Records
---
Amino acid sequence: MSSQDIPEENLPAAQDHAHGSVSVADEEAPFADPGLPPHEHRAQDIDERAAKRSERSVALLFTISMLATLGFIASYVTIPHDKSIFVFPIGHLSALNFALGLTLGTALFCIGAGAVHWARTLMSDVEMTAERHPIAAEPTVRAQVFDDFRQGAEESGIGRRKLIRNTMFGALAMVPLSGVMLLRDLGPLPGTSLRHTLWAKGKLLVNVNTNEPLRPEDVAVGSLTFAKPEGLEETDEDFQDQIAKAALMIVRLQPNDIKDKQELAWSHEGIVAFSKICTHVGCPISLYEQQTHHVLCPCHQSTFDLSDGARVIFGPAGHALPQLRIAVNDEGYLEALGDFAEPVGPAFWERG
């Protein structure tokens, strides 16, 4: 519908703007000003029913945004992180990632589309021209800016069109909830989990290479063996988290070579078990010097004396390797008599 089809009395009042005005080139102004084309009124400017339809469309977009935000929250809470779905033609995707991306994208898109549709159909679209002026605004210009702002607020209809205003505020208020929900991944707090491992009284020492329980005769003098707690399998979902704390290093020494009394008391026939995790930054220790009974961390060369309570004799590590108290059960297998007496790995702020 164009303005030519509307009776003159239904058209909005004429604006004091030079639409369609032109200038002629001359010696002083060699470039002619083509002016602005005649202003064409929109259907919403001359038909209140069209304006109402646009208002409902904008409100619908804002409402969809709110529903999409609720969908984001529901997806984050209810969809398992390991669930996958097939989406043609992309293929198999994480159901959680797909749902989060779809709902959050819809929420943001609908807010933007609603704002654009509102501006294009309901806000004032009268072209305005202004001559260039110095950067420092004069008092009259500042007053004009504030007047124009107030006029724009009135013409936008934000005070009169309450449906749009309320749904827009609702959509803008709910979208940040998506970010708030993501804060859930910062928790839960570790509590005392850093102080404990899977080792407990009666847990068998299992060879990580053969996956078989260890007997004293399986550990030769001068050998280095790595063990894990009974029941911990590589297929477990939390295997990496648990082995990072429970990895064990087993060495058999001559009892007479053990200098530390507690180390000797916690050993079995010279077999000692220490944490494999370096107390500097948590690297796995794997280098053993048979003649000196020293173990070396390959990352930063921290060196520990396994014959003297695994104390630090060189390098940046701050304290000795924790020792695990072991014994032999009735079936002849090596077993733990409890957990480590102190947290394994690097020092952390909860220590002490």
---
Amino acid sequence: MSELVTGEAVALELRPARLPSRALAVLLDLAVAVAVYVAVTIALVASTSSLDGAAQTALTIATFVLVLVGGPIAVETLSHGRSLGKMACGLRVVRDDGGPIRFRHSLVRGLIGVIEILMTFGVIACIASLVSARGRRLGDVFAGTLVVRERVPFSSGGFLPPPPPWLAGRFSGLDLSAVPDDLWLAVRQYLSRAGQLDSRVGWAMAERLAADVAARTGAPVPREVPPPAYLAAVLQERQARETRRAFGGASTGEGAAPVGPTAPVVPVVPVAPASMAPPPVPPGPQPDSPSVPPSVPPSHDRPEVSRHVPPGGRPGTGFVPPA
């Protein structure tokens, strides 16, 4: 791990590429460059067969310089340090301060690479890479560059401090839809690296980030809330909203059958247990029971009520529990 400090006092954790991965990337780049060189040479020989030997030699040298030297320089410049071999191996060429390289960096690396890679078959480059603490060859030393690994294993080192408890739910009404993703990423990186920064520099960065977030949300930062605590609370609110949006429908039961608008709703009639059932009515007329009016239809017009007598000998009450 190589820690570089930028102009804003932010420590960059870079993983320098070692010799095996760099050698594999160089071999892949050379294979592609040689294949292109052979194809261009065959095409030139076929098209310039009528020229004399001196002209053919000049074309051969120009082709060698343009394809094997100028090609890698152009590719690294246009791709900001990622050639075909480095893309395959997950590497990138950056400046010493972690920034992207430019044409002058690629030019110095390419010209010195002709000597330490092509003319000496990579012997000088291997020795320099083994001696260097960050695996740099001579071209990297003179150009001020470094080859780093882009594909690094995931680690849980970026711990985000939680906001103070008294800020829980304080910013639940903020509109966070206008805050871009790159600003959220900057807030997250600041919170994960806040312990590595100088106190004054970290406070200034927190104020600037809090002002940017407040400008996008349309609500100013409360005066009694420190900027780092404000950023932590707003970031936690965003994460909570994303969680509710992703898993909000998981609380409903999966096996419950949906009830349509026309589905009949059957009321549930509670059935009293046997110990709480009303006592059977003894046979005979009751003093408080009203007399049956003469307009009651005969028994064959009314629904038949079950008169089942239980084994105990007591007559049933006619109560039918709901199905």
---
Amino acid sequence: MCALALVSAVGLVVDDRVLAGARIWAKPFKFSLSFVAYGLSLAWMLSLLDRGRRAGWWAGTVVAATSTIEMLIITGQVVRGKRSHFNHQTPFDETLFNAMAVTVVILWLGTVVIAALLLRARIADRASAWAMRCGITIALAGAAVGFLMTQPAAGQRRGESPVVGAHSVGVPDGGPSMPLTGWSTTGGDLRVPHFFGMHALQLLPLLVMALAVLAPRVARLADERVRLRLVLVGSAAYAALFGLVTWQALRGQPLIHPDGATLTAAGLIACATAVGAYAALRAPAGPPGRVTAGRPPRLPEPAQPLQLTQHTQPLQKDAEVTS
């Protein structure tokens, strides 16, 4: 993915072709960067498993293989000057798009397996554990939004239209859009919740890291139970915002032009989050053993297999004598 990002960056510089209202190399560039973040996040999470590591290895390999196939198809279509997504113009284009659809489903199922393994894993730092579990669950919901994009838009018919499916809601793809992201500024855009949901995989663990950095300066954050409560509040707020931007997109409303209902819902989410954070900080602290005084909390390290040697028994006897 790093190599494809470099190739796409060069393409953005030397190739001025435009397809569906965007620079033709923009899609593989954004997709490859997104997969870099996705792959690194999953690799780190898999390293924390204390059981089911073989199943996790296979699930991670499936995710890597299917994402590679998808990127090769996207890049190949760019070279041909053709759309990769929703393209039914010729039997060959339709076959490539159907292959991408299959690989995305397999990739999603591989991530489901990893999510199930994380739910069963015993991770010492509970705040980190729940940030990963909530992050990967929301990411799966964000990825599932992609299936909505494959449904026929207004005026499209399966088996007849050269393009079946769309990113935008209420307006054609390729219209006025935001810089960098390419999200529609005149209608709804399902890429907004798709992006927002999938990147919970990075943003919620980053919340844990931010709390770890602040712990030496804010004594309250040295308590593991406080950090856990804040992570749960943050995860609930993130899930609520994901639901809000999905609702907004499905109503054909641009992200940057919210109506009164959207603003009201956003205000309620902000108020609930503030109240939840205040309650998390003001609630009684945990037992003394839960406090890491003067030091930031340590993030979990990869699980290591237990090594038993012939010296185990003597060491145990020495420990009993010492006690």
---
Amino acid sequence: MDTMDPAALGLGLGPDDLPDGLVVADETGQVICFNAAAARITGIAPQDALGLPLDHALPLQDVEGRPWWQLTAPYSGLAIRRGQPERNLLLGGREVLVSARYVRSRPTGPVQRLVIALRGTEARRRTELSHAELIATVAHELRSPLTSVKGFTATLLQKWERFTDDQKRLMLETVDADANRVTRLIAELLDISRIDSGRLEVRRQRVDMIAAVRRHVQAQTTAGQRPDRFLIRMLEPLPDLWADPDKVDQVLGNLLENAVRHGEGTVTIEVGPATAATSADATTPEGTTVTVSDEGPGIPEESMSRVFTRFWRGSKRGGTGLGLYIVKGIVEAHGGAITVGRAPAGGAEFRFSLPVAAPAFMA
């Protein structure tokens, strides 16, 4: 029986060095290679598979229980086929991701080798678990405001005449605030969908970053924060910045809200030009950099690598844990970068840079 040379893959690597399962059958359909990863994924020992017909060594079925090799007929089907794309199949009740490549001596010649790649379903299950966690988080976050909205509107409809104008106003303001919370959550979900699919659109307009920062600080003080808690530093002159103003507002609002909610002491916002250190003239502005820092306990060193992942909430629970994930996606969609570190005063320091770029009508 012809068996595969362990060094046939080149570079001194053998089939058992591959991370994915590899099964190879010859021109007669007999298995001539069954690597260690394939044994781990299928639970079949290599010595039990080598030399057997492929459909006996690897009796795959589709999700409806039909024999996979009879359906695909690799040796007797159309001679122009090159293989089979990856799909989920069953092997003795175990789920396996399988793809196949038909190796021919000439484009329409007979199959000389049938190469099968096998992968476990752990990665897909982790993705499904992440999606399930997202759904559970959203359901939890929606339940509270919707319960409030339903409760207050039902009460007002049933007992409208019993309440004073001030009581009605308070209830309607609560309903309005909770409706805004639901709207923000739905917007977050849409942003995540666009970021994950690479479809986040950036509509560039001229953005006055200093004015935007001042507007967000004003919103925080209007909401009850002390004006002396915020310090704005401006390093001018700034280059013209073309970015999506709504998305810049999203980034600034999220970073300031995080600093206020999770940090302590003074929140410092520094706006300055970003320069290209690798260019011939390191003073040439290449964009705008914004740094938001606080004087709180900061982020533990071991957590900094997870700050921009989904569901990271730090030491204080609350919220969806999606805000910084979206912030990173928005900044990167602009061609910029964002980092996290420790501020000089010991708190958290977020710094993002946006390139100068060009207006949308010139892109």
